[in-house]
Every structure is written in structure tokens, then in C-alpha cells.
Amino acid sequence: MFWEIMRTLIRIVMIFLYLMLAFGLAFHALMLNQREFESVPLSVVQTFVMMVGELNYQNNFLDTYLKNELPFGVLTYVIFVIFVLLMPILLVNLMIGLAVGDIAEVQRNAALKRIGMQIELHTCLEDKLPYWFMKRVDKPSITVYPNRYCSRVRKRNR
């Protein structure tokens, strides 16, 4: 179960790596004068930290906008709003939804896996029983009659 959910998580992370790289490059191009975004690797790391939830809005966006240090202030805010809507909110909701879907699928398959394990257990137990016992108990076919009782216990008529 853990590995199936982990496989789904890795697929999601591969998609979000492209988005994180795109937003990191956009923030790098728009905010070159800030220390957090002055190089591409730092910009991608800062974007990852922002994706996790540490947006640092006051220092990165508001102060620089009010001091007119952003060359493209409106465009930076548009990219930032798109980032906030896509990355933290969408990522968390998507991961929760896919994990719940994986758990439901695992529960559906669990019944079949349990039956398969029971069949293996019975097969192993039959191999351990003596031949004379299996010859006596094991029947090649069973005939069921509709009006006869299947057990030795008689049904009492009242």
C-alpha cells in the first residue's frame, strides 16, 4: 500500500518539477535584484520553499514593490498570484485526492489478495497432510440435491 501511494507521489512530483522550474525561472527573470532570486539554482530552491508554504510575501514582494525595486511590478504580482493558486493549493489538494484514490483502490484489491493468500495457505496445508487422509477427504466431485440437507444435522419441523 505504501509503495503504491509512493509511486503516485513520484508521478505528481515529476509533473510539479516542471512547474517549479518554470516559476523559478520566471521569478529569477523578474526579480534579479533580490538576493533570493539572483541565480537560477537559488531561484528554484526559493520557489520550492515558497511552494511548501513559506511565501515570505513581505520581504520578497511587498517591500520591493513599495520601494519601486521591481522592474515589472504588475507582471511579478500576476505571476505570484498564479503561483499561489497553482502550487501550494493545487499541489496539496491533488496529493490528498490521489492518496485517497489509491487507498480506495488498495482496499478493493485487498479482498482479492486475501483470497489468494488463503488459497496458498490451504494448498500448503494439503501438502502437509498424509496421503491416506487426503484420499479419504478429498472428493473429485460433489453432487448437491435441491431437496436434501447438506449437513448431518436435521432441521426440526415444528
From TrEMBL:
Keywords in alphabetical order, please: ANK repeat, Glycoprotein, Ion channel, Ion transport, Membrane, Repeat, Transmembrane, Transmembrane helix, Transport
Q: Is rRNA processing set as a keyword in this record?
A: no
Its lineage opens with: Eukaryota, Metazoa, Chordata, Craniata, Vertebrata
Q: Which residues cross the membrane?
A: 12-32, 74-100
What is a single molecular function from GO for this protein?
A: monoatomic ion channel activity
Which parts of the sequence belong to the Ion transport domain? 2-110
GO cellular component terms, A-Z? transmembrane transporter complex
| Cellular location(s) | Membrane
Is Metal-binding among the key words of this record?
Answer: no
List, alphabetically, the InterPro entries matched: Ion_trans_dom (IPR005821), TRP_cation_channel (IPR052076)
Stated name of the protein? Ion transport domain-containing protein
Q: How does it sit in the membrane?
A: Multi-pass membrane protein
